[in-house]
Design goal:
Number of helices: 6
Radius of gyration: 14 Å
Number of domains: 1
Shape: globular
Number of strands: 5
Helix content: 25-40%
Largest sheet: 5 strands, parallel
Structural class: alpha/beta
Length: about 150
């Protein structure tokens, strides 16, 4: 049996409010639904077993701690940094230091929103960015991340 791919899924601040927070922007899908969909997608991935660990925090330092802990086990990180993507050099540096593939996702199209959302500090250390497809941004991001991890394995 092939070695499993281990992915950390990180959800940043306020994403615990999905489903009721500004549904006209973020949709009505809850964070729990997103995590369930990702688990189902991982279970259905045909090429290798996939293990997901999903985690949400409203606290920058807690997210950074989780990234650092992932250095011992994760093959990649799927991250929705939320507002921290625009402001946190520390989060960006933690992701860069990890040395594993990172894919950034956002529910909304940040480039159709306020100008302060147009810059992401995380994007510079990510393989790619998926934004604007609501909860499907996570699905698309996970697919891209799994394929990148497998490509790196050869």
């Amino acid at each position: 049996m092939a070695e499993p791919v281990r992915i950390l899924v990180l959800h940043g601040p306020n994403l615990n409010l999905l489903g009721r927070r500004e549904p006209e922007i973020y949709g009505r899908t809850t964070l729990e639904e997103i995590d369930r969909r990702l688990a189902a997608q991982a279970a259905a991935f045909a090429r290798v077993p996939v293990e997901l660990a999903c985690f949400q925090s409203n606290h920058e330092g807690v997210l950074i701690d989780r990234i650092q802990e992932a250095a011992d086990w994760a093959d990649g990180i799927l991250v929705n940094p939320a507002a921290l993507g625009h402001t946190s050099i520390a989060l960006r540096d933690a992701l860069a230091a990890l040395g594993t593939p990172v894919v950034e996702v956002h529910l909304s199209n940040v480039y159709r929103r306020e100008p302060f959302r147009h810059q992401s500090l995380v994007s510079a250390v990510a393989l790619g960015l998926v934004a604007g497809f609501g909860a499907d941004s996570y699905r698309l991001g996970l697919d891209a991340l799994l394929n990148a991890v497998l490509a790196a394995r050869g």
